[in-house]
């Protein structure tokens, strides 16, 4: 298993993600962008990227906040998340910058890309789909399910899978209905 720190910029903000691949697999291979929960780029996101790499993918655990920061404090996580989600265009741009980093890796088959995310990351994956990202698939795990505008819906190229618990009351039923 190989891992590499990847530093990249969004304006004045330095972002630091982690890319994983397994040298046991030869040639270019499909790739997955992994988008973290509101806690930041923690070990869980990196573990999921590493697990995908063990399965033959190149996987990039992206940094959506900058500096690969993370927290265990909900108020801090909420503040960081709201700072990103308050500007849809900037949110999408930052996620697409992470996708660009993944595409630059020499082992990546640029025709076979996907994005997955957890919680805030699931919403980020949906924003990538709404931005018309060249992805074959987008998966949201317990994402906030932001509904697409009609214009955004027209831009979606990816197949979408949403995994959301029916008994989960964190996302209001009205939002789930609007998303559907």
Task: Please characterize this protein's 3D structure.
The structure is a single chain. The protein is of the alpha/beta class. The protein has six helices and seven strands, in the order βββαβααβαβαβα. The protein has a seven-stranded mixed sheet, with helices on both faces. Strand 5 (108-118), helix 4 (120-130) and strand 6 form a beta-alpha-beta unit. Helix 3 (88-104) packs across helix 4.
Structural class call reads alpha/beta
Helices and strands, in order, run as: EEEHEHHEHEHEH
**Backbone CA Rg:** 15 Å
Low-confidence runs of at least 5 consecutive residues: none
Total of helices: 6
Task: Give a short synopsis of this structure.
This protein is α/β, with parallel strands linked by helices. Helices cover 36% and strands 28% of the residues. α3 packs across α4.
List the helices and strands and how they pair.
Elements: E1 2-10, E2 13-21, E3 29-35, H1 43-54, E4 58-61, H2 74-85, H3 88-104, E5 108-118, H4 120-130, E6 137-141, H5 150-155, E7 159-163, H6 173-179
Parallel strand pairs: 3-4, 3-5, 5-6, 6-7
Antiparallel strand pairs: 1-2, 2-4
What key phrases describe this protein's structure?
6 helices, globular, 180 residues
